[in-house]
Design goal:
Elements: H1 2-28, H2 33-38, H3 42-52, E1 57-59, E2 65-67, H4 74-85, H5 90-117, H6 119-130, H7 144-159, H8 163-174, H9 181-197, H10 204-212, H11 215-228, H12 234-241, H13 250-262, H14 267-287, H15 292-307, H16 315-318, H17 327-339, H18 341-365
Antiparallel strand pairs: 1-2
Helix pairs in contact: 1-5, 1-6, 1-18, 3-4, 4-5, 5-6, 5-7, 6-17, 7-8, 7-9, 8-9, 8-10, 8-11, 9-10, 9-15, 14-15, 17-18
Length: about 375
């Protein structure tokens, strides 16, 4: 428990430093730190759902229709629950939910790291997650911390054979974000592999967990479909109104071509680098023979991110729940820390500087949706 406290303490320190740098920049630019963290971009949609329920739609140019039905219900339900119990505003409640979920996520991925590689790698994994270039999102009223928390503990439950917990947590992950289905895919794949290895002689809880896993995601998609009058395509029609669809990466490739040939703001080239790094890390994860559920979870998130259209600048945020991608880097840095401590300190220090500077730029300076 003491080692877990060290890992969580380092995570809190990383995020607290990031918030302090953001607060100083906000003060210098005449902006509100609370508004930047608790009432930015998608946060406003979630807070609207928490306060008024679903029903808001904005019409822009032909074919561009932004409906709040694109947003999954678990996070606004948690925010609404907090405001009903504690006298907080929606923004403050949203931050409380996100910060608590980020801590739960860090603890869950620490447990996964210990199970696979020991305390040193697990601590480095948690620290790296808190120092990603886009980890500022973990300090905002966004849904990624909630999804990552359920994902981490569901994967831990799979790895330790707790199938009912795995399925239940995967169902909750699926109710939190569209890409939350990646957790269910990991549980189902792991259950199928386990059943094949044992020639079908598996506990009943395995099949129950696999059946529970996709329920959260499927339930919301079907509910939106019935509400829109098309059970199978209604939700996906809502997403197309936002410009989001699965096009096998055609939109992403076209945007990359635009960046290379014409150039753009710093956010977009940085997004391209982060996504490319994620692909490389996934290859390293495969080479390290990571457990199947981690490969399926991270691979599904990566596939959805790379092959989906929509807001290109949001792709790094979509990869935040894919924490297993950091395992190869955590292993390498842990070995470096043992052999050459100063080298490891310099690398972590550089990552911290990049995280704080880029996170502050994203939220306080760049006029770009997250």
């Amino acid at each position: 428990m003491a080692t877990a406290a060290t890992a969580l303490g380092l995570f809190v320190a990383a995020r607290l430093c990031g918030v302090l740098v953001l607060a100083a920049t906000a003060h210098l630019t005449g902006k509100s730190t609370f508004a930047l963290l608790g009432r930015s971009w998608d946060s406003l949609w979630y807070l609207g759902i928490a306060t008024h329920g679903y029903g808001r739609t904005l019409h822009f140019e032909p074919g561009v229709i932004h409906s709040d039905l694109a947003f999954f219900p678990l996070y606004p339900a948690l925010v609404r629950t907090v405001t009903a119990v504690v006298p907080l505003s929606g923004g403050a409640a949203g931050l409380l939910v996100s910060w608590a979920a980020a801590m739960a996520a860090a603890w869950g991925m620490y447990r996964v790291g210990v199970l696979l590689h020991g305390h040193g790698v697990a601590t480095m994994l948690v620290l790296l997650w808190g120092l990603l270039p886009h980890s500022v999102v973990l300090s905002m009223a966004y849904t990624e911390p909630v999804l990552t928390a359920f994902a981490a503990w569901s994967l831990y439950a799979v790895l330790t054979g707790r199938w009912l917990w795995a399925g239940t947590l995967a169902a909750l992950a699926g109710a939190s974000r569209p890409n939350g289905f990646a957790v269910a895919a990991a549980v189902i794949a792991a259950a199928g592999w386990e059943a094949w290895k044992r020639r079908g002689r598996v506990p009943r809880t395995l099949w129950t967990g696999a059946a529970l896993a996709p329920l959260g995601w499927c339930a919301f998609v079907l509910w939106v479909g019935f509400r829109k009058g098309d059970p199978l395509d209604g939700y996906f029609a809502v997403q197309r109104g936002w410009g989001s669809r699965f096009d096998f990466g055609a939109d992403s490739l076209d945007f990359v071509r635009h960046l290379l040939l014409e150039g753009d703001r710093m956010v977009f080239p940085m997004t391209m680098v982060i996504v490319a790094a994620a692909v490389l890390l996934y290859a390293l994860l495969i080479a390290d023979h990571a457990p199947l559920p981690l490969l399926v979870h991270s691979g599904t998130l990566l596939l959805i991110t790379v092959a989906g259209s929509g807001f290109f600048e949001s792709k790094p945020r979509f990869l935040l729940p894919a924490f297993p991608l950091l395992l190869p880097l955590a292993c390498a840095l842990t070995r470096t820390a043992r052999a050459r401590p100063l080298h490891a300190v310099l690398v972590v220090g550089a990552l911290a500087g990049l995280s704080m500077a880029y996170g502050t730029y994203l939220v306080a300076i760049a006029d770009t949706p997250l």
